[in-house]
Amino acid sequence: MGRAFVYVILGGGVAAGYAALEFVRRGISHGKLCIISEESVAPYERPALSKGFLLPEDPARLPSFHTCVGVNEERLTPEWYREHGIELVFGTKVKSADVRRKTLLTATGETISYKILIIATGARALKLEEFGVRGSDAENVCYLRNLADASRLVDVMRSCTGGNAVVVGGGYIGMECTAALVKNRIKVTWVFPGKHCMGRVFTPKIASFYEEYYKSMGVNFIKGTVVTSFENDSGGKVTAVILKDGRRLPADMVVVGIGIRANTGLFEGQLNMEKGGIKVNGRMQTSNSSVYAVGDVAAFPIKLFGNDVRRLEHVDSARKTARHAVAAITAPCTTGDLDYLPFFYSRVFTLSWQFYGDNVGEVVHFGDFSSGRFGAYWVGKGRLMGAFLESGSREEYEAIAKAVKLKATVKDMAKLEGEGLEFAFQVAPDRVTMGKRNNGKSGCSIYGNVLGPN
């Protein structure tokens, strides 16, 4: 027994919601599209989980952050899917896929067939057990990848107010969850193996600014070491974290954010893989012409980087690759290759930063670090490769994005440092509305809502 659809989206995360909206806007007929998700809720904006969802006061809750509110578009509630004839198969695990036969077999034994499949399976959180550390299944050890994880984290935080938390991992999850724990009046020790936080994006100078800010909020840093074991009480709760350097950290709760791994298992041996994900072309099409991959699971060519294949673990990539795949499916003759500008952002406490492009080449910092109004440019072979800005206006973020997109020529590094943001505005002044810089009014956007609400 089974069901058949023209289009099936496998996975119910951010990419699935944006793909669904694009299908509807392109006139898909009722009954043609199915979304299969292991979660029990309609697709939602995952960035909210490490930000608004964890707030102690007026926290974000569904349905407020269903997709596609992340770019100020329609909010796709379960009713929206019903109204547009989209089948939602919730709480369902697919245990095998056959791309030759175009079928998916669920854990309940149902076969779902398709003509076109979009893989949006995302990624899973890496567990400490994968690095030889046992015991992260304790009730007060938390990971954060989905709504169930976030709900559990909130429950644990509420029981630990005034207590001690150990955060493991120096990336996005570590940075954003540490801020949330502090706001929930929990004392935090942040542990990671690197020399500074956010090593994949921040320079040492940029990281130093954020680390000093976190210290002013009471956060204790332990760098250059890893967790090796836990101490537990008779009920199985973790009471202390043991580090490789021998230190013992009392803990009422632990939050782990040590990276993710793309969910490619169903398609190993059936589709080409690269960079830890499913390799696709510029139209998000895999090595099987009936299968597309989007979001965290997709490794796709970046025009800005000479078509180097990258797998980008960020919500902006999920949104835009999903929409592009649907465009390529429904209008193949008029849809070219995706021309994507890599974009990352975060918000913690009163701080907010955005990064565009690639952090390769020689770096130049600019602005006033003491006031929190600063940024950085990365330059390679005389061209602007990447740009970072803390506490910018919409117009300023748009300006640095445009400068990176154009791979602006840089002739004098010292001059670039002195010009700072002015360099970005000078690159294409006729194509960026300066708004607040000129008259205090907000200008129009050339990229839509790059900030997002999450």
From TrEMBL:
Keyword tRNA processing attributed: no
InterPro entries cross-referenced by the UniProt entry: FAD-oxidoreductase/Apoptosis, FAD/NAD-bd_sf, FAD/NAD-binding_dom, FAD/NAD-linked_Rdtase_dimer_sf, MDHAR3-like_C
Domain FAD/NAD(P)-binding: 7-321
EC code: 1.6.5.4
Catalysis performed (reactions): 2 monodehydro-L-ascorbate radical + NADH + H(+) = 2 L-ascorbate + NAD(+)
Domain Monodehydroascorbate reductase 3-like C-terminal: 341-424
GO cellular component annotations of the record: cytoplasm
Cofactor field: FAD
GO molecular function: monodehydroascorbate reductase (NADH) activity
SUPFAM superfamilies the record matches: FAD/NAD(P)-binding domain (SSF51905), FAD/NAD-linked reductases, dimerisation (C-terminal) domain (SSF55424)
Keywords, alphabetical: FAD, Flavoprotein, NAD, Oxidoreductase, Redox-active center
Short name of one Pfam family: MDHAR3-like_C
Source domain of life: Eukaryota
Family stated for the protein in its record: Belongs to the FAD-dependent oxidoreductase family.
PANTHER family assigned: APOPTOSIS-INDUCING FACTOR 1, RIESKE DOMAIN-CONTAINING PROTEIN-RELATED
The protein, known as: monodehydroascorbate reductase (NADH)
Organism of provenance: Cocos nucifera (Coconut palm)
